[in-house]
Design brief:
heterodimer, A: 156 residues, mainly alpha, Butyryl-CoA Dehydrogenase, subunit A, domain 3, 74% helix, 0% strand, B: alpha/beta, Double Stranded RNA Binding Domain, two-stranded parallel ribbon, 40% helix
Chain lengths: 156, 202
């Protein structure tokens, strides 16, 4: 089986992976997660057996990095990450409050919502990227949306 | 909910920067098996590809480099990344060569793409032909240990993965003329003329 040159993966998926990571962990942490994602991918690439869904494979790695980040973040008592974000307004965050809200969702719901609505993936691919069943992907997306809606209503 | 909206092109630039930093990190962790770049030259664009050992491939680019990169990914390693820093030593020598400042290439070579044996010996003998001189297919075959294998020597030269630097253009037919060249004959003529090995019009 022939794997394409890694540069092609980088060219084709760089922007989407970055977008996913900004949505998942915020601008501040996105660069680090991006680098970890692609280094990890590069490390495992020559041993990859199945080249049929390279995008899904990359997003699985990116999701894992985002989950790792959340785990570490949740153990960090002071939310240092928030401060610089407020200083520099995020022109890419169309609705900053909504994104803030997304980042308060439990990890799986957060990841599912981002995969479904930011990356516009069908549930089958959301499931694959998160390593869960399609039903679980659907359920997490649904719960995440419900929670976001109730938060917005409270805020309004 | 408007999750889909409000995502502008800031990601293009930001992700490009992140990818650039990732490349530097990959390099320092020895994760770039093949680094390549495309450069301009007086005889057209060239694809340069280097492993950690040295220059492994030089390709005249008449189209896009995809096919060659796929070939490298398939035969050597799929960890192929655009990395001008990796190919910089070769690029600098090529520039100097085209400007007439360098006559002997000293950039390290990686012979991985050439089979050990006759082909390899032919290319090594070719690498030793000095700037400004030419020799025949028969002579190269002889130096590679098989005086009667001039045709096979021609094939090995045609498959030379590192033209210019391994100067297969300096091998010409004994009957006269510049002979065949994998990278088209006009390029061979240009190189021989540049080196002062070809006189007269044409």
């Amino acid at each position: 089986m022939n794997l394409p040159p890694f540069q092609r993966l980088l060219d084709e998926h760089r922007v989407d992976v970055y977008r996913f990571l900004v949505a998942s962990v915020g601008r501040q942490a996105a660069d680090d997660c991006f680098q970890e994602t692609f280094l990890s991918a590069l490390r495992g690439y020559p041993k990859l057996r199945d080249a049929s869904n390279l995008r899904g494979w990359l997003f699985t790695i990116a999701t894992r990095k985002a989950l790792d980040h959340w785990r570490v973040e949740s153990r960090t008592p002071v939310p240092v990450e928030r401060l610089p974000e407020r200083e520099a307004p995020q022109r890419a965050d169309g609705d900053p409050e909504l994104w803030q809200a997304v980042r308060t969702l439990p990890p799986m719901q957060r990841a599912a919502v981002i995969h479904r609505y930011v990356l516009d993936l069908p549930y089958a691919e959301v499931a694959q990227a998160l390593g869960i069943s399609e039903d679980a992907a659907r359920a997490n997306t649904y719960e995440g949306r419900k929670r976001l809606r109730s938060m917005q209503e409270v805020g309004a | 909910m408007k999750l889909e909206e409000g995502w502008d092109d800031g990601f293009e630039e930001a992700s490009r920067r992140a990818a650039h930093e990732t490349l530097a990190a990959a390099r320092s962790r020895s994760l770039v098996d093949i680094g390549y770049t495309v450069v301009d030259s007086p005889i057209g664009r060239l694809l340069l590809a280097s492993t950690r050992a040295g220059l492994v491939r030089l390709e005249y680019l008449d189209g896009d480099p995809d096919e060659t990169l796929e070939e490298l990914a398939g035969t050597l390693s799929p960890r192929v990344l655009e990395d001008p820093e990796r190919t910089e030593p070769a690029r600098r020598q090529l520039d100097a060569y085209f400007e007439g400042r360098v006559r002997t290439f000293r950039t390290p070579l990686d012979w991985s793409l050439t089979h050990e044996g006759f082909s390899r010996r032919v290319l090594e003998a070719t690498a030793a032909i000095p700037f400004g001189s030419v020799t025949t297919y028969r002579d190269v075959a002889t130096r590679a240990g098989s005086p009667r294998a001039a045709r096979a020597a021609g094939n090995a030269l045609h498959d030379n993965p590192i033209p210019i630097v391994v100067p297969c253009h300096r091998v010409v037919p004994s009957g006269g003329g510049v002979g065949k060249y994998g990278g088209q004959e006009w390029r061979k003529e240009y190189l021989l003329r540049l080196e002062g090995a070809l006189h007269g019009g044409g």
